[in-house]
Specification:
Elements: E1 4-8, H1 12-21, E2 26-30, H2 33-41, E3 48-52, H3 60-69, E4 75-80, H4 85-92, E5 98-101, H5 106-125, H6 144-158, E6 164-167, H7 174-184, E7 192-196, H8 205-210, H9 227-230, E8 235-239, H10 246-258, E9 260-261, E10 270-271, E11 275-280, H11 284-289, H12 295-301, E12 305-307, H13 318-328, E13 337-338, H14 340-348, H15 354-368, E14 373-374, H16 405-427, H17 432-439, H18 443-452, H19 457-464
Parallel strand pairs: 1-2, 1-3, 3-4, 4-5, 6-11, 6-12, 7-8, 8-11, 13-14
Antiparallel strand pairs: 9-10
Helix pairs in contact: 2-3, 6-7, 13-15
């Protein structure tokens, strides 16, 4: 059965062009968005909908919003004049598949429609939803923020040919997210390559991206393949794309438009077949305003965007992440658990380095812990102005005024216990046996309490011998 197309434009000349270049498809025509909606509401279903942006009654943007809100399984391509390119590309973030710029060229129109039809076909062949990409590597966690990320990653994996921009602070797992999308996509059987854009210079970017003919700049006797050819049929990740030299940005825009490239030293181009993903920890819109990043390239890359939340915004995932890194450390036989105080301290920390910093913290801390429990005082975290020498926060928590009665009692109990035990060890010069008799608790129990509150008896034994 031929794929069904709905072609919408208030200009009859444009509809004639559609009829001429897309004649192989089963096409239906409409002159405005209102007519298109009537067809859909009558039960007509289309694989691909191609619509002009500027139309009377209901424009292309409003039609797109209606289609997505009603969950019609159609890919939408917008047609726009040069003056409205920005609005059309922004609409891609609402779910549009791609856009065409007037005047229309037959080869480009056919190519975009063919890609949209292929995408619909792949979706129809998928009988069940892809398995979630949650809990891949450091992308662990079941917070609401991460569940939304997993959903977006699944959707991005279905769209194997669309550009993808992943934004997030340093250490949030941007490369891991990109790799997980690749591994769930139609391109998973081919290579996943990462290119650090910060390492590209004004002299090297062309040969790194597009390759280089033998002898062009060096004495090499053989041609060199660039990343685009090395990643054929796979996925190329441009890591920290904001650092891409301006000339390279122009060349990348050309690749996204034509899907062709030319090696350095050659005048013959080749076809590029790889998915382009990009990551950044910088504010690209601000870079665009400052003239440091091309606006048109930003729009092309950001049509499909996933934002990874910082760890401080999903503290409920600290527990599962901490135990995940404990398991991977290879020290689980020595460290069976992480104390409640340690988890509480992890949740109080701001994590400027995000998940990567948490992983380093756990791996380093368990290496020096005596076990079998990782205590708060054993966490390898930087000291903060509001913490004592053991990393225990000493600010007046009650001043915050946001505690329940039970929470206030628990904090007051802990502060009283810490103060009592510190004084007890001090007056007994670190003699735990003597201290346990005074406290009326068994010696092993006192040891556990001392470890919980990060009190080291050996320091007092040393001071008592001076």
């Amino acid at each position: 059965m031929k794929p069904r197309l709905l072609l919408i434009d208030d200009d009859k000349k444009v509809l004639h062009i559609f009829r001429a270049v897309l004649g192989e498809y089963n096409a239906t025509f409409a002159s405005n968005g209102a007519q298109a909606i009537k067809l859909l509401e009558k039960g007509e279903r289309f694989d691909v909908i191609v619509s002009d942006v500027k139309m009377p009654q209901i424009n292309g943007i409003e039609l797109l919003e209606f289609i997505k809100n009603q969950s019609y399984h159609s890919e939408v391509i917008l047609v726009t004049a040069h003056a409205t390119v920005e609005s059309a590309v922004k609409a891609m973030k609402m779910g549009a598949f791609d856009y065409l710029i007037k005047p229309l060229y037959s080869e480009e129109t056919v190519a975009v429609v063919e890609r949209a039809v292929a995408t619909v076909k792949r979706k129809n062949q998928s009988n069940s939803k892809l398995n979630p990409v949650s809990n891949v590597g450091t992308l662990a966690g079941e917070s609401a923020a991460m569940l939304e990320v997993y959903r977006q990653l699944d959707q991005a994996a279905l769209a194997s040919d669309r550009n993808l921009l992943i934004i997030g602070e340093t250490g949030t797992g941007k490369e891991l997210a990109a790799r997980s999308v690749h591994e769930k996509s139609e391109r998973r059987a081919s290579v996943f390559s990462t290119l650090n854009c910060g390492l590209l210079s004004a002299d090297s970017w062309k040969s790194e991206l597009f390759g280089e003919l033998a002898g062009h700049r060096s004495s090499d006797l053989s041609d060199r393949e660039g990343y685009f050819l090395q990643t054929r049929r796979g996925t190329l990740l441009l890591d920290e794309v904001s650092l891409l030299p301006m000339e390279a940005q122009s060349a990348l825009l050309g690749v996204l438009d034509s899907r062709t490239g030319t090696p350095a030293g050659s005048d013959r181009s080749y076809r590029i077949d790889c998915r382009i993903m990009a990551t950044t920890n910088r504010d690209l819109p601000n870079l665009v305003k400052d003239g440091a990043f091309r606006e048109d390239l930003y729009y092309r890359l950001s049509a499909l965007t996933i934002s990874l939340p910082p760890l401080r915004d999903r503290l409920e995932d600290i527990d599962s992440l901490a135990y995940t890194f404990l398991d991977r450390s290879g020290m689980r036989s020595k460290i069976q658990r992480i104390s409640d105080d340690a988890i509480a301290r992890l949740k109080r920390y701001n994590w400027p380095g995000n998940v990567r910093e948490l992983r380093n913290c756990i791996e380093s801390s368990v290496s020096f812990s005596e076990g079998p429990e990782l205590a708060a005082c054993e966490l390898e975290l930087p000291a903060t102005p509001a913490a004592d020498e053991n990393g225990i926060e000493i600010e007046d928590t009650f001043d915050k005024g946001d505690l329940t009665y039970r929470q206030a009692l628990e904090i007051g109990r802990d502060q009283a216990a810490r103060k009592y035990l510190s004084q007890l060890i001090k007056v007994t010069f670190g003699n735990v046996s003597h201290a346990s008799r005074i406290a009326g608790v068994a010696r092993p129990s006192l040891h556990r309490l001392l470890k919980r509150y990060c009190i080291d008896p050996s320091k007092e034994r040393l001071s008592g011998n001076i």
